[in-house]
Design brief:
Layout (H helix, E strand, L loop, with lengths): L1 E5 L2 E4 L23 E8 L2 E9 L10 H5 L2 E3 L2 E5 L6 E4 L1 H14 L7 H14 L11 E10 L12 E10 L8 E4 L17 H16 L4 E5 L7 E4 L3 E6 L2 E5 L9 H12 L3 E5 L3 H9 L3 E8 L3 E4 L2 E4 L2 E4 L8 H13 L10 E3 L1
Parallel strand pairs: 2-4, 10-11, 10-18, 14-15
Antiparallel strand pairs: 1-2, 3-4, 3-9, 5-8, 6-7, 6-8, 7-20, 8-9, 11-12, 13-14, 13-16, 16-17, 18-19
This protein binds 2-OXO-4-methylpentanoic acid.
């Protein structure tokens, strides 16, 4: 039944909520989805028919281009339940829209207008607000994505696309220790490739090396550059940062590194906390030396899913190096608190990163 038409979005409500089947005290990452999904179609050169409908399967031709040639991009951002009101607070959805369009441009997909993206996620937040968990460390994860819909198997940019947003109540992405292995054989992305784009193929490339590393007890790969395996790039599901001699060091952005929104937020906060920040090439040798001579104070992954995940062990060429445990008054603890206070609406948001719904 169609019940409303908000911001040019047709809304068909789900009369059969599945929320009662979800154990909010045992949320995995990405297991559940909320009751609705936002949908827009692209044909004849424009996005149209914006609608929110009950979460459901979609029907695809076996020849659907995205399934064959990977013309597909995704985003991920979170909303938190405010600590002192009934609002839910979306964290930097506009920055994710910006990045999504950069990813789309790289693989010849048509940009999504800002109002379609923002209206879609805000209406989704309104209609499925009861899905935002109040449990500590949990959030409502938004997964916007778009893919090529042509049923045509010549290799060429598609003329038809879907843009969809669904939501998932999530717990921590990494639970327990985060041990990472510096990869020296496989490559995620080369300079000039699509590593900076949030496109499915980048993640497919990571699966086999990650599976092999997991057999040896490492939860993530730390990728190195494709040419020499000499410089650190990022981990499988996050950017990476190091605190060395009180300087925050992180690999500089390039065409093979994802421009992380959490990365950007932490760099902004670190500068405002008067930390020296260096975005530059970070060599594996420098990281190993800093672990050997005890100048490495912290190492952590940063991402929407990962948030700030302290790394416990870095493995390089078969040797495990232990990273010092983060201190309660150390950089990552301090920056996590500031970031969380903003995300949960406990302090003013001087950066205008949040949207309350
Ligand atoms: C995110 O941090 O939102 C991501 O997209 C990482 C993903 C691989 C779970």
């Amino acid at each position: 039944m169609i019940t409303a038409d908000l911001a040019n979005i047709r809304i068909e409500k789900n009369n059969f909520s599945s929320i009662k089947s979800v154990d909010f005290n045992a949320l995995d990452f990405g297991k559940y989805h909320s009751d609705h999904m936002f949908f827009a179609d692209y044909n004849n050169g424009k996005w149209h028919d914006m609608r929110i409908v009950p979460y459901q399967n979609i029907s695809l031709s076996p020849a659907t281009a995205a399934l064959h040639y990977g013309q597909t991009v995704f985003e991920g951002f979170k909303a938190h339940k405010a600590k002192n009101s009934s609002d839910i607070i979306l964290f930097r959805p506009d920055k994710h829209w910006e990045r999504m369009n950069k990813s789309m441009a790289r693989i010849c997909m048509p940009p999504i207008p800002k109002d379609i993206f923002m209206d879609g996620v805000i209406e989704m937040a309104k209609i499925d607000r009861i899905w935002a968990p109040s449990q500590e460390g949990c959030s409502l994860y938004f997964r916007p994505f778009a893919f090529a819909m042509d049923a045509f198997i010549r290799v060429k940019p598609s003329e038809n696309y879907y843009f969809i947003v669904f939501c998932s109540p999530v717990g921590a992405y990494f639970a327990g220790k985060l041990n990472v292995k510096i990869e020296t054989e496989y490559v995620r992305s080369a300079v000039g490739g699509i590593g900076f784009a949030k496109s499915g193929g980048n993640y497919a490339a990571s699966l086999l090396p990650a599976k092999k590393a997991a057999v040896d007890g490492y939860q993530q790969i730390m990728w190195t550059d494709a040419k020499e395996h000499k410089y650190i790039e990022e981990t499988g599901a996050s950017n990476v940062m190091f605190l060395i001699d009180n300087v925050l060091v992180t690999p500089e952005l390039s065409s093979s590194i994802l421009d992380g929104v959490t990365r950007d937020s932490i760099i902004t906060l670190a500068k405002d906390m008067n930390y020296k920040v260096e975005e530059r090439k970070v060599s594996v040798d420098e990281i190993i030396l800093s672990l050997k001579n005890n100048s490495m104070q912290e190492a952590f992954g940063t991402g929407t899913a990962a948030v700030i995940s302290p790394i416990s062990i870095i493995n390089y060429l078969g040797v495990d190096y232990t990273v010092p445990s983060p201190k309660s008054d150390g950089f990552s603890a301090k920056v996590s608190k500031i970031l969380n206070d903003i995300k949960y609406g406990l302090v003013e948001d001087p950066y205008h990163w949040t949207i309350r719904v």
